[in-house]
User: What shape does this take?
Amino acid sequence: MNQDLTHDRYNPTMTLFKSNPASPGESGRYDARSIEVLKGLDPVKRRPGMYTDTSSPDHLVFEVIDNSVDEAIAGFADTIEVVLKPDGSVKVTDNGRGMPVDVHPEEGISGVELIMTRLHAGAKFSNKDYAFSGGLHGVGVSVVNALSARLDITIFRNGCEYAIGFENGVKTRDLETVADADPDKTGTSVHFFPSTGFFERPGFSKTAIQTALKSKAVLCPGLTTWFVDENTGEKQSWVYDHGLDQYLTESLENRDTLFAKPFTGECRTDEFQAMWAVNWMTEPGHTLEESYVNLIPTRLGGTHVNGFRSGLLESLREFCKFRNLLPKGLYLAPEDLWNTVGYVLSVKLSEAQFSGQTKERLSSRHCAGLVNLQVRDAFSLWLNQHVERGEALAELVMDQARARVRKARKVSRKQTAGGGVLPAKLSDCTSDDLQRRELFFVEGDSAGGSAKQARDRRFQAIMPLRGKIMNTWDMAPSAIMESKEIRDIVQVMGVLPGEADLSRLRYGKICVLADADSDGLHIATLLCALFLRHFPDIVKAGHVFMAMPPLYRIDVGKEVFYALDDEEKQSIVKRIQRRKKPGRIHVQRFKGLGEMNPAQLKETTIAPDSRRLVQLTVEKADSLDEVFETMDMLLGKKRAKDRKEWIEAQGDIKEIEMT
Assistant: This one.
């Protein structure tokens, strides 16, 4: 399975049962002795890909840089230096407060040793020491230690110079005072040698490190970043006085832009800050699209980018409506505004949640609304203060919309490829653009009613399903068509079972929306089996998605949070308790989609800006064989014995990280 990388939030891991049950000749023992507990940094060494990008050691440098940047965000550092050494090592130095050297009152070891040798140890889980920080997982710099053959740390603090050393994550040199130092001199220097066996490519990318240092300087006014390559003698520094405006203008200097100066804005609250600069190209082509959260680049976007895009679009639609610029029948879609955009967006959150340790995508649901509100108000004001430029942007976006309409594949709303009438319970959408059209198969008529009210009828269609469909895994295509429910599904999609020609497919996204309980997962599994077995080409083309409705709603005061499962619920409750927000925490468990009102269903599951979708896809041939073997063992009518043996001998789960 893979996640939708376009607009939606997603869950970073899915679980699949192992597909290779132990044979009778192998040991079938499964008791307490079979359980293995990984301690310290062992989980990182065993599964490094779960904690960092293993294609190259570049991400280790980024983790250390991010720690230094957190000091800069907090106002304690103004210089960061990265030095590439001739021996293949790298040294990152900052002039922040220096890592703690005193003994932790509970753990009995120094603060720096605790940070470097324990996962989920750090000062960034609350906002006592860092109001905004990217290091919220507490594993970053300890991962660097685990994956380094050698790591040495020098700390300047309290008028002393301290040193400590590690090899392969194990302390080899106790923390000691090396010499006296200037009382005003503070900071940390981390010098490490990556273990090449953990990475596909052993060397560092100078370009990637330089880009990261440049972006930090852009996003943190007053911060000077240095890059030094001792192999070549190259030395370069960055400091930006005008921030995002200057950076975006320099990056787009060879392109024809719509505005002479970008539209820029900034907002600040106690728990949220946002800065942005945006401009549009007069012609499509390569442009600059960068987003950051707490100065960490989010290459895959996330909820902050979704809110930024929707805020700009809503403002432009309002501007066009107020000035009667939009022709009748022409609808502005997000891609019309986004095709030629160039932007830099920087958001700072006190409680940022990322999808995975590499932090390439923001998943904090509430951020979309925060960014949308600030950007929408600021851009609406700007458009009405600069009417001529606003009308030029409107004309550019309308040209994109007209081009999209011309290219859109026309589909009949109420006729299938065979000419039959579509099911009456289908609530279809009005758009003719295949790529925008979405179909939701919703569990239950009551939830279907709420979903119909929550959808955007312009591009979202709702098809309620009555209970569980039949298990079609072992059935022939002709046999499954005897079921009325299956016939309705086939008619709505427009493609027959086993058909390779997808030219008559009626929707760009086909989403399964079932309850978050065991019955809902069973229904989703049966639908997955239907698509994998009888519509494999639709799956391979990336059209099938699983919607991820929340299982819990958490209320505290006027704030509302949603949790996908028990683990996320506990994480949210702990985060609220750390913030010491006034008010009692109330947790509600949804028994089904029907319990949600349309507004809740829209926010959590259907609206593209805030929903979570997981894409159903199998990319490699060997993976496909493995998935089919697993599904056959779980759903095959003749595999009951195999299922029983598997549950008894191999009743654990296999965790697969999605990319």
Remarks:
- The chain has four domains: 1-35+411-549+592-659, 46-238, 243-407, 551-589.
- Confidence is low (pLDDT under 50) at residues 1-27, 122-139, 409-419, 653-659.
- Residues 77 and 434 are 51 Å apart (CA to CA).
- The longest helix spans residues 365-385.
